[in-house]
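User: Run a structure prediction on this.
Assistant: Running it now.
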Amino acid sequence: MSETAVSAREKFNQINFDMIGPDSVDYKEMKEVNKSFVELVSAYKRYTTATIPYYRGLESYWGAVEAYGNGQYSAVSADLNDASNQFELAKSRYQDAEQAVSASARSVFIKQTCLADAMYESSEFLIKASFERQDNNAEQAREYVDQAVAARKELCQV
């Protein structure tokens, strides 16, 4: 057992419960604290569940950007398809959470929904750019890259 757990157990054992009267504990306040804690844990779980695919998408996305910069256009498509799928999954999970979490946490999920959508759009534009580069259409590819950068830089303000 860890030192912290042992210390907590020792302190718990030192409590004289006979001295604690019914007026010592505000049960209504304890219920409210417990409710807040449950809401926080639920929101955190939803956030984690959505953020894992978001970061997986970022990993694939930036790998594809690097490959694109190195002229490896055929390798870019698979990474960007994976990134798009991950961003779409993250967006869906963030969006589902928007209505499920407390009002105080809602803005975080709304912003993350926007960011995941922006990265999804950016990925889709880069996929088009990579196909254009493979077809030697550098000018059209550049336009798609510009659109990808603009999508990625979208300001998601709540």
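The chain has five helices and no strands.
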